[in-house]
Amino acid sequence: MKRFLLSFVLLFFTFNTVFAQKDTEHWFAPFYNSTSAYISRLYMSTDSAAPFEVKIYSNNVQIGSVMISKGNPKIFPDPTVTPAQPLLAPYVNATTTTEAFTIINTKGLYLKGDKPFFASLRSTNLTQHGEIITSKGRAGIGNKFYAGATPVTNTTSSNFTAGIMATEDNTTVTITWNAALPVTFINGSPTGNTQTVTLNKAESFILAGTGNQNISNFIGTKIESNKPITVTNGNCNGNFGAGGSSGSDLIMDQAVPVERLGNTFAMVKSLSSASTENLEGAIVIATEDNTQIFVNGIGTALTTINAGQWYRIDETNYVAQGTSGHKNMFISTSKNVCVYQLVGTNSNATCGYNFIPPLSCYLPKKIDEIGNINEMPNITLAINLKLNIVTEAGATVTYTTSATGGVPTTPTAAQGPYPLAGSTTWVTYDISNISGNVAIQSNKAVTAGVNGGFNTAGYGGYFAGFSSIPFITKQTGECAPGIILEVDAGFDAYQWYLNGNIIPGATSNTYAPLVGGNYTVKVTAGGCQPVTTPIFKVFSCVKQTTKTVGTCGPIIIQPTFTSSTQTPVASTVTITTPPTHGTAVVNANGTITYTPNSSFAGNDVFVYKFCGNAPEFIDCEQVTLTITTTPLQVNEPTITACLYDIDPTASFNLTEANVTDFPLPTIKTYYPTLNDLNTNNNQITNPTKYPSAGGYVYVRIIAEGGCIGTTKIKLEPIPVKKSPVLVDKFICIDGRTSLDAGPGYDSYQWSTGATTSSIQGVPVGEYMVILEHNNCFLEQTVHVKKVQDPVITKIEITNNTATVIVNGGTAPYKYAVDGTTTWQDSNVFTNLSRGQHTFYVKDAYVCDPISVEVTVPNLINAITPNGDNVNDYIDYSELAYKENLTFVIYDRYGNKVFTGDKFNNYRWDGKSSGKKIVTGTYWYHINWNEPNTAKTPIKYTGWILVKNRE
Question: Any idea where the IgGFc-binding protein N-terminal domain is (predicted)?
Answer without folding.
Answer: 141-452
